[in-house]
């Protein structure tokens, strides 16, 4: 079974703090993703990475950065947390399916509910 | 550009009744379509995936979805709802960008099952 783990289920931080959210996958997937989920807005892509040290901005990258130093680990960084970054953060990973040409399934972690006070 | 519209942010059914969750997509290329389910306080779990092999796709927990190109739809159904089906359901369309396959999600439909 694919397993995607996230370092914390719940996190409370103060405005201005630097916040690290960690994600680890155990299936040797090339692709990793960070989303935020807000009621009524669904999932929105923050950043993704298709290889070690490679990253691409998603739809809402402002206020966030990422790091991928090892294939299995993808970190989301909030340089200076703000109250509007209170949200559920979901990490996902997927394999690059070069044979079928299809979009492969993304496997999700349990999420980190971040509250910024 | 790819987009997904889920009609109805909230659907309520009685236990044993038909479940129908609607999803319409917009895609400039042949779509890869997904339904995910999210139970309370959990991440997303794949229900089923359409990759053009067959228009009727069967998934886990008795769910299925039918791809209709003419209607650009991929509605999710289950003949008989169970209390354990109460969750939020997300439709998504896949596409490639920057060497990676990405997903665009709908805003979700929360399913309530009444006893």
Structure keywords:
heterodimer, A: 117 residues, mainly beta, seven-stranded mixed sheet, globular, B: 115 residues, six-stranded mixed sheet, 60% strand
Structure description:
The complex is a heterodimer of chains A (117) and B (115). With 117 residues, chain A is mainly beta. Chain A has strands at 4-6, 10-13, 19-25, 31-38, 42-51, 54-57, 65-70, 73-78, 87-94, 107-108, 112-116. In chain A, 0% of the residues lie in helices and 54% in strands. In chain A, a hairpin with a 3-residue loop joins strand 4 (31-38) and strand 5 (42-51). Chain A is globular. The model of chain A has no long low-confidence stretch (mean pLDDT 91). The termini of chain B are far apart. Chain B is built from no helices and eleven strands. The radius of gyration of chain B is 14 Å and the shape is globular. In chain B, 37% of the residues are buried. In chain B, the strands form two sheets. In chain B, strands 2, 4, 5, 9, 10 and 11 form a six-stranded mixed beta sheet that branches. In chain B, strands 1-3-8-7-6 form a five-stranded antiparallel beta sheet, with no helix packed on it. Chain B is mostly beta strands and 115 residues long. The chains are: A mainly beta (117), B mainly beta (115). The interface between A and B is medium-sized, with 33 and 27 residues.
Beta-strand proportion of chain B:
over 45%
Largest interface: A-B, 33 and 27 residues
Assembly state of the chains shown = heterodimer
Helical/strand content category of chain B: mainly beta
Shape of chain B: globular
The structural class of chain A is mainly beta
What is the CA-based Rg of chain B, rounded?
A: 14 Å
Describe the main β-sheet of chain A briefly: 7 strands, mixed
Largest sheet geometry of chain B: 6 strands, mixed
List the total number of helices of chain A: 0
Distance between the termini of chain B: 41 Å
Strand share of the residues of chain A? over 45%
Order of helices and strands of chain B: EEEEEEEEEEE
Q: What ranges of chain A have pLDDT less than 50 throughout 5 or more consecutive residues?
A: none
What percentage of residues of chain A falls in helices of 4 or more residues?
under 10%
The succession of helices and strands of chain A, N to C, reads EEEEEEEEEEE
List low-pLDDT spans of chain B: none
Helix content of chain B: under 10%
Cα distance spanning the termini of chain A: 37 Å
